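All the exercises in this workshop are built on plain-text protein records. Sequence and backbone structure share a record, each on its own labelled line. The question running through the whole workshop is how a given chain folds. The record below serves as our worked example for the rest of this section.
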Amino acid sequence: MMHTSVKHLVVAAALVAAAAPAARAQALGAKVNSAPDGRVQFSFASRPGTCGNGRSYIQTGPNSITGTVSYSGNVYGNWNDAMRADPCIAGPVRVVIDRADRLPLTVQTYVGPPDTTVRGVTDLGRVRAQDAADYLLSLANTVDGRAGRDALFPAMLADSANTAATLVTIAKNTALPRETRRSALSYMGRSTDGMQTIPASVTEPILAIARDESDNQSVRQQALSVLGRLDHGAGIPSLIQLSQQTQSNWLARESMSTLSRSGDPRARQYLRTAVKRTDLPDDVLAVAVRALGQDYATAQDAALLREIYPTLKTDRTREAVFSALADIGGAENTRWMINLAENGNERLDMRRRALDAANRSGAPIAEMIKLYDTTTDPNMKQTLINIYIRNGERASVDKLLSIVKSEENMSVRRQTIQRLSNSDDPRIKQALQDLISR
């Protein structure tokens, strides 16, 4: 009998402990609701590395602890160079809620010293950080519009507050405004900062939202983006899996696009494998090809793109190769595209696109000028003329003047004169005037 009683006491104590946070958050909500209409405020401890001037800006991140604002931290609010001398002071967080008929109109967040010049605010004093976070998240989950969305930010500043579970609830709540749900998803990714491993309780709901074809595409895109930003690459395996599924081209393409922005070695290796596949939908393959030319591109990636070009079957994927190589740049890629542009066995439209891409990749203008004298195709000449006009350097202007004066193809010559008729370059103006005077 004694053992049963002890067990009941333990269970009862556990239930009380579990209910305590919700009760305290409700108590804070009751205090806010019982305050007179108008502005009501409360404050609570902030996460380490959070500071502000108490009036106009908040900074988060490791540089905040120095007491000065740095662009390498995340700065929120209004800040400019004139505030550089304004000290960035650590915590507490102060939330000011403006209300009418007990409904929140605005939620404003400050960090640092209180503004003693403000009048007409009901001050509830200091509250527990977890209680503040729970109450603010309850607002986000129930209040429509900007006020609900703005309640998310201060909740994420609460020291040691556990917010992940409630953020999941908000992100999954399709009755809420789209931007509130997108913000909740973004904060879900940040709520795991400092964790050695990312729990399935965070990754699985995000993945479920990304997969839900009945949900808003913008929210689903945000879910994919958060998966790509999770610490330790926790979302990369899921993104790879999503990019391989065949039920939805949109989901496969967007997952591939998210992988393209990751420097995770698994993502990069997967992209290198994907561009060699022959079973991917055309739009998905094009995304994978372009991805190899983005931020984390290597010389080996460029070589792979040049290697697969002859095997590609659509204009979209071939153009993706040009785009990627133009982004990577370098003499080897530029020479490859120029060689392709000179290859008479290639389709004319592909040769012109290769020429434009070579120019974007940084091809020397002298080399582009030489090409004009080796081509007889009027369309290729027009592409080169466009490049010279955009370039505007002396060598390009010299070549344009030569074309105006001596190009044998009268159609090309007339079009060049027409293109240059609005030029402000004095040499071109004089050359055109001389033609008129003849």
